[in-house]
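Before going further, learn to read the protein records used in this course. Taken together, the tokens spell out the fold as the letters spell out the chain. A record is reproduced here so that you can trace the correspondence yourselves:

***
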Amino acid sequence: MAEDLNIGHGSKEEQYLSLIPQIKGLIEGEPDLTANLANIAAALKEQFNFFWVGFYLVKNDVLVLAPFQGPVACTRIGRGRGVCGTSWERAKTIIVPDVEKFPGHIACNSASKSEIVVPIIKNNLVIGVLDVDSSDYDTFDAVDATFLEKIVALIR
């Protein structure tokens, strides 16, 4: 298991390409989901300095806050509510350039300006979501979606 993160530089794509093998090293051989989610959130936060990075897991038909990095967050989110609940309901990645323009956005923190949410799908069921927020508008794009989807695919 790797214990240090080598912060990559260059384009966003180059940073993800450097980060993914390190995330694999962090979670490889570790069966505990909580530990793996915590390390993935920490690695993403450290690499990109996002405002908030974390996970919500489906429990009793609601998304419940799981490991994260950043300010305190909403604890429970219903299916179809906000960006996280909508990603869960649609089972697809959602990129929001301006969270104030997203219908039903849940403002856990007013400093969040843009967001990407990636569903974690196992056996054709969404078991949770990866939620990443930025304090800048229009931070996320198809590059983030592609690589964050690859990262959540590593989760067992």
